[in-house]
Specification:
Blueprint: E1 28-29, E2 36-41, H1 44-62, E3 68-75, E4 84-90, H2 92-95, H3 98-105
Antiparallel strand pairs: 1-2, 2-4, 3-4
Length: about 110
């Protein structure tokens, strides 16, 4: 049995540097083990549409479906804050680009 090392190019929060970032300034990839990708807006359909657009771009980049563990919907009723908070709870290995690195290591 041989041990092979996979080299991933990650940013300071541990996700792949080439991972498509959410386009809206209020959206973000957060830094916890299950990696919530957050979309905030006063308009729920807009937040959901941006999350779907990001998910399509991320899946195109990854070359396979992103493993979304759960979708969390919350709200923030504080003044000046976007009301809706949609989070896609994603597998951190997918967001780090591990499937891409494995394919590059073992091309078919």
């Amino acid at each position: 049995m041989s041990e092979e090392t996979i080299q991933l190019e990650l940013n300071e929060s541990g996700v792949a540097v080439d991972l498509p970032q959410p386009a809206h300034q209020g959206d973000q990839v957060q830094g916890v083990p299950y990696r919530p990708v957050e979309f905030r807006d006063d308009d729920l359909p807009a937040a959901l549409e941006r999350s779907a657009a990001w998910l399509r771009r991320a899946q195109d980049w990854l070359g396979e479906p992103v493993d979304v563990i759960a979708i969390h919907l919350d709200y923030d009723d504080r003044d000046g804050k976007p009301y809706y908070d949609v989070k896609l709870l994603c597998n951190e290995e997918d967001l780090a680009g591990a499937p891409i690195a494995l394919r590059d290591l073992n091309p078919e």
